[in-house]
Amino acid sequence: MENHSLTPLGEKTASYTVPGNLITKPGKYRLAFRMRSRAEPIYFMRFVGSTREMEQRMNERMVSFKAYAVEVDVK
User: Considering the entire predicted model, what is its pTM?
Assistant: First the structure.
């Protein structure tokens, strides 16, 4: 999982494609994206001697942020 994470203040560009056969009808389509924070890996928390309560509190703080949506008008 660490290999897919961003470093602090890091950037990553991702390219996505949508197969044409999925948007065959005219109209507006909405593509939504979001980034999520994640907790430290549980093996690390246990390695540093965290308590069950500490693990629970860390999981409660995971948040979704940077929600972004794009509308595409197909004619």
Answer: 0.44
